[in-house]
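Reviewers of the previous submission asked for a worked example of the structure-prediction workflow described in the proposal, so we include one complete record here. The input consisted solely of the amino acid sequence. No template or homolog information was supplied to the procedure at any stage.
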Amino acid sequence: MDWQGQKLAEQLMQIMLLICAAVAFISGYVLGSFKMMILIYAGGVVLTALMIVPNWPWFNRHPLEWLDPVEAELHPRPVSTRRKKSTKNK
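From that input alone, the workflow returned the following structure tokens.
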């Protein structure tokens, strides 16, 4: 899953759980049944998990381009030249 796919999965999860919560609350209120409200919300959570947890192809539409190992050796990471701050009290 790429970065944009993770963002899409997060947004879908939030939207689906919010809709499931609203539908569960309204149906539980109309039916006057707390048990039915919990069952509807639990079904929504399971449906959301089935939509979000597997790595579906639409979550990987923008794959990252990785360097080949040989190319990575040609361009080593820059070494930090910053000095560490002294922790001694003067």
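Residues 3-60 form one domain. We consider this example representative of the routine output the project will generate in years two and three.
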